[in-house]
Amino acid sequence: MLVLPTKLTHDEAPACMRMLQKGLAGQTDASATVVDASALVQFDSSALAVLLECRREASALGRGFAVKGLSPRLRELAALYGIAGLLPAAP
């Protein structure tokens, strides 16, 4: 499982994406990528961009994608942007 930091804004997005890319590369036997967003408390729309890029990269590797612990506030922001369906909740 990949874990998001407590803060993910425009300034943190590039480093966070690099961290997630390394995590994706290390999941050689995974059929799905799950990102844990439960620690995320301070964010802006960059968090959505990072999640979407992670989803795209997981898909390119032939893996499913889901998000665990997405806060109601971030879920509302995803709905506002019309992308909530692209960030399915992990079981």
Q: How would you explain this protein's 3D organization?
A:
A 3-stranded parallel beta sheet has the order 1-3-5. The chain starts with a strand and ends in a 10-residue tail after the last helix. The chain is globular. Helix content is 44%, strand content 18%. It contains 3 helices and 5 strands; from the N terminus they run ββαββαβα. The mean pLDDT is 95. It is of the alpha/beta class. 26% of the residues are buried. α1 (13-26) packs parallel to α2.
For the biggest β-sheet, the strand order reads: 1-3-5
* H/I helix tally: 3
Could you list the spans in which at least 5 consecutive residues all have pLDDT below 50? Answer: none
Taken from the alpha-carbon principal axes, the silhouette is globular
Mean model confidence by pLDDT: 95
Order of helices and strands: EEHEEHEH
Structural class by SSE content: alpha/beta
Q: Measure the end-to-end span.
A: 13 Å
Percent in strands = 15-25%
Biggest sheet record: 3 strands, parallel
Task: Describe the structure concisely.
With 91 residues, the protein is an alpha/beta fold. It has helices at 13-26, 45-60, 72-81; strands at 2-3, 7-8, 32-36, 42-43, 64-68.
Map the helices and strands:
Blueprint: E1 2-3, E2 7-8, H1 13-26, E3 32-36, E4 42-43, H2 45-60, E5 64-68, H3 72-81
Parallel strand pairs: 1-3, 2-4, 3-5
Helix pairs in contact: 1-2
Q: What labels describe this entry?
A:
91 residues, alpha/beta, 3-stranded parallel beta sheet, two-stranded parallel sheet, 5 strands, globular
